[in-house]
Amino acid sequence: MRLMPTRVIIVAFIALFCAVLFPASEVRAEGSRTYHPQGAPGNRAWLEYITGGPLWLTAGIARLSVIHVYAVEGETIYLGSSAVGVGQGFIYYVQPDGQANSCLAAGLIANRVQELAGPQPLNPAGYVPCVVVVPPGQTGIWNIHFVSPNPQGGAVNNPPVIEANAPWVQNDPTRQATAAWDVTVVNVAGQEVIGRVYTDYLAMNMGGLGSLINPVALDSLFYILTNDGYLYSVDLNRMNPFGFIFFGNNKGFQDAAGQRLYRSVQLQNDNDPALLPGEFVHNPDLADDGANITHKIFFHIPSPDLPASAMGFDRNTQTSSLEWLRTPAPFVPGPPTNFAFVGAGGIPGITLPGQGGRFEFDLPLGYSGGYTISLDLNNDGDFADDIDRVLFGNAAPGTRNVLVWDGLDGEGTPVAPTAFQYEAEVSINTGEVHFPFLDVEANPRGLIIAQLSDVLGTLPVNYTVYYNDEALLPGPGQVRSDPPEALQGIDSLNGAHEFGTTNNLVNAYGNIKGIDTWVYRPGPPVRLPGGITILSQDLDLAITKVDLRDPLQINQEVEYVITVANVGATNAVGATVVDEFGDFLFEPRWTCAASGGATCAASGTGDINDTVNLPVGGQLVYSVRALVSEWTPNPFPNVAVVNPPPGQIDINMSNNQDDEVTNLIDRPLSTPTPLPPGGGTGTGTGISSSGVIRKGVEPPFVQPGDAAAYTITITNTTGTPLSNLVMTDNLPTDLRVLSAAATAGNVTVNGQQVRHEIALLNPGESVIVTVRVQVSPEVRLPIQIRNQACVNLSPEQCASALLLGVTRLPETGETPWWRGVMLVGLIGMMLLGVIVMLVVGMAVTGKPAEQ
């Protein structure tokens, strides 16, 4: 019958309440008897200690397990090994300040009975230990080396395959591993203290894979303590390895840049079990370096009396320094902020099938682990279906984090466009730990990994694990993990991440591979505001506009040709073509000719605001004629715009607007324009029989974030004084009012309304109101902003001005006159005026005036 994971709970409670559950005479030493206790199932794992030869390195990591123990001044450490006195086997230890000592011939564990009994004098039936009393000043981490009988290696000589609870014999001087070992700590009161012993990694050897009838099974339990205060139990659950390495770290396998791969990897081959070029794993035998952290493998639940850090000696650097041990409470960072998505085309929240985009967010200070972005791609409200996509990233604290999505779902298919928005969320992977198993042939029942509620191991709270073997295709006869990836998480309560089979011991799936299983505690998820919209395909509408004659004379007709085309890959049904001609162009009339399946209104008068259909390849040609009035400014602009249908986004907005500027031949550029007869409104000017209001804007062409200035002139042209005049100007929300001032009277700003009051305006007098505005940085081009100012005459008189938000300057490519060509001296003799007009016209257009 399969061993159920309830033993995880039982062991946790036993360790927590050990003082109550066990009498003082019970010896519960830490070592091989911990993972092979009385009655242990499965087979024995021998502890390797190899310093050379063909078996020395796997993935660049020495097959050499060093055991660490925390001990306090005055306490006693008992040490024992089954390899003492066999070949070159002995025990040596290094205290926190780096001083090394040897047990010589002391500490032999002669048989299974002594292994289970533990050290004398705690148990008379136990082994005679090597006794180490912690001297003054040496509280800290001690390194224990259980040297094998043949550490230099040489010819391969694997230990025998034996049952975990069976008697063993260690007398072969050529063995490179130790059958039994023990570290027992006794405090100054003579009481054993458990939970002090750990290692950075385990290099073990089962002696073989067993037989088809009786395959090898490793059925042991370990505890992984993370540097940020999380504790996990790992039940190997009858794993079927041969010689292997096991450890826990914060990144698993990485690329050359140190980024987590979040997947298992292939090793070179049996003769060279190294990682492939460009792939990397932090060597657990080396110290942490800030970015790379090796978590600690404990044999019991860590002792509550462990400090947060202690002095220890690093044999690689030959230095003593502080090393982390036990964080009393798990580190819980805050959630990510400013979560956003930008499609591959550069539009926030919107992308196309198969194009994806990038996620962006900020991390809380102090957090430098991994994170997860999940996409609900079948819109069912959860993020754990096979079709849903899970992305893992490496956090960079203090910077804007960016993770690219390729636009594919969890099954490798481009995400389809829909009428709804896809949801996404980001969460921090707190307590993240990876369990790389190097060269483990088979794991037919899977691992049982429990997240424990605290560092006391009080209760298991979660059994979810993650893995990804998708890239490691099985060879002939091999059995890959099923499912091959579990990026959404899978419950390991009854075992998870099974791979290989004991029916094929020679060619097992895990051979010469690095198999990574990882766990973490997801932080609170942060949902993406607005979700992700995926458009059907690439919609791209384009418009061009030209005038057929330039320059023109007053009272001539301007003729425009406007061409609209669908140059994208998606039909546009319900697009709009817009062209406002302004009040200075009289009687505009137009016709439209369609081709390529497009449709439009055949003709019309006045401004164009035409709802059209443009299939892919379709085209519309508008022919426009309008009379140039006497008060037309020189030169005069006009803009044509095509807008996509409602609910669709044009990915390329740079060709959705075209600006055309036409020159006049008979008027200086800066001469005040004559007023239209009768009153009413006009761009730049307006007049009535009792007074006049004019309005202009400088410059009339702007882009998001630009500033502009409106000039409103009120002149009393009557023969009697005008009293209590009030002018109001309600500006649209696309403009932010920066300031307002007047040459006389009182001006106030209330939100978007500018109000000017003057008690008395005598005949012939004028007052000028100047309103400075800024175009909103969020305004989307192209845009036409027309607003009017009105004065409280009877009847009310108004004047409007047109501000154009454009993607570029007029097609001449030069700065237009309204950007500062109000030059002194242009008013004079007619001949001189004509000459100046022609010269400036050539400067603006960059070419001679057309005939």
Structural overview:
- It is a single chain.
- It contains 5 helices and 57 strands.
- The chain has 851 residues and is mainly beta.
- The strands form 12 sheets. Strands 2, 11, 15, 18, 20, 28, 29, 31, 34, 35, 36 and 37 form a 12-stranded antiparallel beta sheet that branches.
- It is elongated and about 125 Å long.
- The model is unreliable at 1-27, 670-690 and 809-851 (pLDDT under 50).
Topology, pairings included?
Elements: H1 6-16, H2 18-21, E1 30-31, H3 32-35, E2 46-48, E3 57-58, E4 61-62, E5 66-71, E6 76-81, E7 90-94, E8 100-102, H4 112-117, E9 130-133, E10 140-147, E11 177-178, E12 181-186, E13 192-193, E14 197-199, E15 201-205, E16 221-225, E17 231-235, E18 243-247, E19 253-255, E20 265-266, E21 279-281, E22 296-298, E23 309-314, E24 319-324, E25 337-343, E26 350-351, E27 357-362, E28 370-376, E29 389-394, E30 400-405, E31 423-438, E32 448-452, E33 460-462, E34 464-467, E35 490-491, E36 513-522, E37 526-527, E38 533-534, E39 541-547, E40 557-566, E41 572-579, E42 585-595, E43 603-605, E44 608-614, E45 619-628, E46 636-643, E47 657-662, E48 692-698, E49 701-702, E50 707-715, E51 722-730, E52 735-742, E53 746-750, E54 753-761, E55 766-775, E56 783-791, E57 797-805, H5 830-845
Parallel strand pairs: 26-38, 49-57
Antiparallel strand pairs: 1-12, 2-11, 2-15, 3-4, 5-10, 5-14, 6-9, 6-12, 7-8, 7-10, 12-13, 14-22, 15-18, 16-17, 16-22, 17-32, 18-31, 19-21, 20-36, 23-24, 25-27, 27-30, 28-29, 28-31, 31-36, 31-37, 32-33, 34-35, 34-36, 39-40, 40-45, 41-44, 41-46, 42-43, 42-45, 46-47, 48-50, 50-55, 51-54, 51-56, ...
